[in-house]
Structure formats: C-alpha cells, structure tokens
Amino acid sequence: MKRSIMHIKTIATLAIFLSGFGYAMAEPVLSPDMAVREEIYPFATQTLSDEQFLTGTSGKAEQIGGILSLPQGKGPFPAVVLMHGSSGVGANIEPWVRQLNGKGIATFTIDSLTGRGYKQLGDKQAALGRLNYIADIYGALDILAHHSSIDPKRIGLLGFSRGGQAALYASMTRFNNLWNKSGARFATYVPFYPNCVSVYKDDDKLEAGPVRIFHGGADDYNPAGVCEDYTQRLKKAGVDIEMTVYPEGEHGFDVPTLFGKSLQSKTAQTARNCKIREAENGILMNLDTSAPFTYEDQCVVLGPHVGGNAAAAEAAYSAVLAHFVKTFELN
C-alpha cells in the first residue's frame, strides 16, 4: 500500500513538474492524423527546358527527394503526391499531409528545388522550365507504383501554383506517353490556383482520371478566368473536369501562415497578361509579339499578391478530402 501511495505521489509530482514546462499529460500523444512511418527517398530526374520537355529531349541529370508518409492502419494504402509551388515546400503542405493521413491516405511530398540548389523561384521563373515539375511528378509516381504499401491503382496528384500547373498538365495523354515510365497512371488530378495561360498541342486529350481545379477569384498571380476558359474547352471535348472558385480567395489561400493577410510579392514574376501557344519543335510563342516567349517580355509583370483565407481553405479541405475518399472508394 505504501508503495502504491508513493507511486501515485511520484506520478502526480511529475505531472505538475511537466505542466510547468507546457506539457499536458491529459492530451493524447497519438492522434488519428499522425503518420505511423515516414520514408525519405532520393530519386533521379532531369532539369529540362520547356522545349526539351515538349519534344521529349533529355536534359541534365539531377537527383531530388521526397518524403513518403504512411498512415495508421493496414495497407496497401491509396496515396497522393503533393507538388509544391515556386516557393518550395511551404506551410500549406503539412496540413494537407495530416488530413490525408487521417483519412488513411499515404502522401508523397516532392521537394523539386533543394536538390537543384534553389530555395525558391518566384523572382527567377526562367531558372527552371515551367513543365519540369511534371517529370519530377512522374518520378514520384514510379516510386509509389512499386511500393509494397501502396495500391498502384489508387494514386492521386495534388499541386499548388507552379505545382498546380504541373498537376493540371500531368493529366495530358501526350505528356504521359513522353515522360511517364512508371507503368501507372494517376487516378485523379487536383490543381490549386494553377497558371493556364499556355496552350499546348493536344491539351484537350487527357487521361481518364478526373480533374478538379480549385482557384481564388481574387488571385492576381494566376487569374482564375483563364483556367475557367480552359475548363469549358475541355468539358466540350468530353473531359471529366470541374473547377471551384472561392470569390475572396487570393493566391495561396490555403496557406495557414497567411490567413487574414494579403501581401505583395514585389519581386515575383507573373505571366498573367501573356498569351502563349506551343508552336513547332516545342517552341512556346508569345502571341502578342509572334516571337518565342521569355520572362523578359513586356507581358511579364512583377508584384502579384499572396494571401490566406481560412474560410476558403476549410471549404477546399472538405471538398478535396471528399473527392479523394470517393475516388479511392474509402469508407
């Protein structure tokens, strides 16, 4: 009895001691959205100009990395590849990882910049081809498609900004035929606030997986209107595509560290005013100048805004998670 009383006193004293350092003993350490395991993968890819990507020409060999987060439960699991934007892996990625893991969905977060020696591309968009992320995405798909804990028929793609553009055009059958060597195809494509100003050959011929675009009506980085036009064009071609626009949402509306803020990225480049079309031999032409597009063109401007919107983010979380649950046929 004395030992039991002493033991209880010791536990009580320890709890009081730890509470003084901000530890709450009553709160569970394990939560349903916590990954049970994380695996870090370096993988081979290439640095490609848009011309090289569009013509299927080899570029510079590179090695980048990604983190696979496995959820609690028993696999094989469905999975979602997450593709960041020009700023790299930012504050919006972890909330998506945790929520997807909480639904029993594994995630693979790509880091396309660090391995190439970049921290961000906002003020130097020409440093990496706009379509290069797609090659990285297919590399991640190859890892997942051959992983014993992943169901290769239930892999989705979720991308943001530049990564949203990649998530959108990774759905093109032509690009899959050129660069996707995984033997698998994505079950669905979910781009967030992508750039849709470029018109590519056969960009209305997509893989079977549904496309669901989420955008902000107040986005002056990648305006939503151009993507709405593209969505309507694809619908007429029979593509399973839908677009949701949150009227108050700015670029990066799901970034929690930006909630309630609207910040001007004074040095960031945006091609929002450009009209670009693929011509012969993979050359992207500026339709206003009838010359190859460059980031020195007058249509490229500086100073777009980024801003978070909690209401839009919560609505997007709900819609996207429901879409993945339905697509992956989860309970």
UniProtKB/TrEMBL annotation:
Any one Gene Ontology molecular-function term assigned to this protein's record: hydrolase activity
Gene3D superfamilies for this protein: alpha/beta hydrolase
InterPro entries xref list: AB_hydrolase_fold, Dienelactn_hydro, FrsA_esterase
Keywords, comma-separated and alphabetical: Hydrolase
Matches recorded under SUPFAM superfamilies: alpha/beta-Hydrolases (SSF53474)
One Pfam family matching this protein: DLH
Domain Dienelactone hydrolase: 65-256
Record flagged with keyword NADP: no
Name the record gives this protein: Dienelactone hydrolase family protein
Taxonomic lineage from the root: Bacteria, Pseudomonadati, Pseudomonadota, Alphaproteobacteria, Hyphomicrobiales
